[in-house]
Amino acid sequence: MSATMTASSILQHAARHAEKFLDGLDEMPVGTRASLADLRARFAGDGLRQRGMDPHEVVDALVAASTGGLVGSTGGRFFGWVIGGALPSTLAADWLTSVWDQNAALHATAPAAAVAEEVAGAWLADLLGIPASASVAFVTGCEMAHFTCFLAARHALLSRRGWDVERDGLSGSPRIRVLAGPERHGSTDRALRFAGIGTGAVERLTGTARGLLRADALEAALAQNPEAPAIVLLQAGDINTGAFDHFDELIPVAHRYGAWVHIDGAFGLWASASRQYEHLMRGAGWADSWATDGHKWLNVPYDSGYAFIAHPEHHRAAMTYQASYLTHATEARDEMDWNPEWSRRARGFATWAALRELGREGVEDLVNRCCGMATALVAGLGALDGAEVLCTPTINQGLVRFRSTRADASERDHDALTDQVMAEVLRSGEAFFTGTTWRGCRAVRVSVSSWRTTEHDVTRSVAAVAKALAVLRA
Ligand SMILES: Cc1ncc(COP(=O)(O)O)c(C=O)c1O
Question: What is the pLDDT of residue 5?
Answer without folding.
Answer: 64
